[in-house]
Amino acid sequence: MLTINLVCVGNLKEKFWQDAEREYAKRLSKFCNLKIIEIEEANEAKEIDKILAFEGKSILSHCKGYGILMAIEGKNLSSEDFAKEIQSLSLETSQITFVIGGSYGVSKEVKDKILKKISFGKSTFPHNLARIMLLEQIYRAFMINSGAKYHK
Amino acid sequence: MLTINLVCVGNLKEKFWQDAEREYAKRLSKFCNLKIIEIEEANEAKEIDKILAFEGKSILSHCKGYGILMAIEGKNLSSEDFAKEIQSLSLETSQITFVIGGSYGVSKEVKDKILKKISFGKSTFPHNLARIMLLEQIYRAFMINSGAKYHK
């Protein structure tokens, strides 16, 4: 079974995001071994460069297998193409690690090391909502790849 | 105060989506008069054309002021450009109506009548999550337009 790691900066404070995450994690448990790794958010008082360097080190230490960075400058894929991407990666690797940055994005080092970048279009979304959107797209990808019917 | 109507097909079944909607509605109440109008979902047993025609009639009857259809073929805007769009529309109209279709999208009639189409990129999202994404982007737009700091 494919392992999907989701490396995120900071935790989900609101209960509704936690519950949404739990729901998608439950649905995904049929298709993959999902691990959600929450990186400690750096203290806001520091300079942005230092925050990103601190978070980046931690992010990279948790990147196992094939890394995919969620970044606004990344490639915007249709759900079908995203599903194909996961399908073909699953033939090459046993682990995929998705990374969602924090409030300030991610460091240059993270961007340089994780070559594969995917975006959800040009809009900026908060990290908590982006996490749910990504979980939904991963679930949708597995549903597409299994030939199951899944509603919009 | 600008009125923002959000016309959606079907309701939010899961409590976490309802709570997320409530949270963004609360935040938006500072900036606009938000009205969420839930159109009855057509019976799934009917043919798709009939479902869309039934829902479409109801959608159009609730379209007040300037209409914007959320559609995958629409224009994908950055949050800043979306904010500018709302800003300039608010000078022309007192009401903006956003439309999110149901599981089968919307009828040709709705697409023909609502000329302005916006998308959140190429990914397909379920209507419940799309509703939260839209509320977040509207809130982000008001925050951008008011010059407030708002985190990713």
What does this structure look like?
The structure is a homodimer. The longest helix of chain A has 19 residues, at about 125-145. In chain A, helix 1 (about 15-30) runs parallel beside helix 5 and helix 3 crosses helix 5. Chain A has a single domain (about 20-145), classed as 3-Layer(aba) Sandwich (Alpha/beta knot). In chain A, strand 3 (about 65-75), helix 3 (about 80-90) and strand 4 form a beta-alpha-beta unit. Chain A has helices spanning about 15-30, 50-60, 80-90, 110-115, 125-145; strands at about 5-10, 35-40, 65-75, 95-100, 115-120. Chain A has 5 helices and 5 strands. The model of chain A has no long low-confidence stretch (mean pLDDT about 95). In chain A, strands 2-1-4-3-5 form a 5-stranded parallel beta sheet. Chain A is an alpha/beta fold and about 150 residues long. Chain A is about 45% helix and about 25% strand. At the A-B interface, helix 1, helix 3 and helix 5 of A face helix 1, helix 3 and helix 5 of B.
